[in-house]
Specification:
By secondary structure, this protein is α/β, with parallel strands linked by helices. The chain has 10 helices and 12 strands. Helix 7 links the parallel strand 11 and strand 12. Helix 1 packs parallel to helix 8 and helix 9 packs antiparallel against helix 10. It starts with 9 loop residues before the first strand and ends in a 6-residue tail after the last helix. It binds alpha-D-glucopyranose and magnesium ion.
């Protein structure tokens, strides 16, 4: 990534729903704790990558609902679409690569033979992703039958089952794991192979992330049975993968500490007045942001008094003025 001159100290590759985002935490506290940690300790030398099953429109909707940071790279539609930076510049090389031996029309002809497959909304069907819903109890049988039909037509695809309901058909070379491998190779070719990489997930389509060589992995505390079963069958002996106790972003912070890949105390968790020497303007900005966030959440008991503390920090250190 051009934003950094040196190899990134840490690359976090995280799924969103059920991993970075806890839909059962209306205050988004764990996410806000992660955000503060990232901004204070990692943004300057590390890369944040979101890897979601959502399509670009659905990802944009989530961004409006939840206080997500802007990632350096966004991988969408289960590893079939990669975009860079805030303006989300698409990776056309990746698209061209996925076009190889991919025949969407032939796939839909075969899927039409299975009435158990309920099509997902149009927005979730993408150039390199054909998606359905299928009942949990029928999934294995349908996947088996469908694989046979697709094989007969020599269609080299990958079928993934996630969240106990979603079935995705992708090019064999696509998926969250393959997309990450592609990015890591690109980083290395630029002389910017990361010092550490941590992958984070909770469901079936995340399993591939944990098979990428040399990465640390965290299955967050609320991970679904389908991922835990995959781990039990395939990766139990890998000491670089943990099942965290913390839910979602709390599990990610827990993994950072567990693998000692960098600081793991969120500035949001430091309640007492911390005196930082030497004065670090970046940390003061993070503290101001956290103060604002806590004040909005109604966590500040005596707002007037706290306001004075904030004001005095800025006066004492003369931020933005010459002494
Ligand atoms: C997201 C996508 C959906 C996909 C699912 C599992 O929910 O919106 O299309 O099937 O992830 O990958
Ligand atoms: Mg998920």
């Amino acid at each position: 990534m051009d934003r950094l001159n040196d190899p990134p100290s840490l690359v976090i590759v995280s799924d969103l729903d059920g991993t970075m985002v806890d839909h059962d935490d209306p205050g988004n506290l764990a996410l806000l704790r992660f955000n503060a940690l990232w901004e204070a300790s990692y943004r300057h030398n590390s890369l944040l990558v979101f890897s979601t099953g959502r399509s670009p429109p659905s990802y944009r909707r989530l961004r409006k609902e939840k206080p997500l940071l802007t990632p350096d790279i966004t991988i969408m539609s289960v590893g079939t679409e990669i975009a860079y930076g805030e303006s989300m510049v698409p990776d056309d090389d990746w698209k061209r690569y996925l076009d190889n031996n991919w025949d969407r029309k032939a796939i839909t002809q075969e899927t039409a033979k299975f009435p158990e497959l309920i099509p997902q909304p149009e927005t979730e069907n993408r150039p390199h992703k054909v998606s359905f819903y299928v009942e949990k109890g029928k999934a294995s049988e349908v996947i088996l039958g469908l694989s046979k039909c697709l094989e007969k037509r020599r269609l080299d695809v990958k079928i993934l089952y996630s969240n106990g309901t979603a079935l995705d058909i992708l090019p064999q070379g696509a998926g969250k794991g393959q997309a990450l491998t592609y990015l890591l190779e690109k980083f290395k070719a630029d002389g910017k192979g990361p010092v550490n990489t941590l992958v984070c997930g909770d469901s079936g389509n995340d399993a591939e992330l944990f098979s990428v060589p040399d990465v640390y992995g965290v299955m967050v505390g609320n991970s679904l049975e389908e991922l835990l079963q995959w781990y039990a069958d395939n990766a139990k002996s890998n000491p670089k993968i943990i099942h965290a106790t913390g839910r979602c972003s709390a599990g990610i912070i827990e993994a950072i500490g567990n693998f000692s890949v960098g600081p793991s105390v969120s500035p949001r968790d430091i309640t007492e007045k911390s005196v930082e020497k030497p004065f670090n303007p970046g940390h003061e900005v993070v503290k101001l942001y956290i103060f604002y966030e806590r004040w909005r959440c109604g966590e500040i008991e005596n707002s007037e008094q706290k306001m004075q503390t904030v004001k005095s920090t800025f006066e004492l250190n003369k931020i933005g003025t010459k002494s």
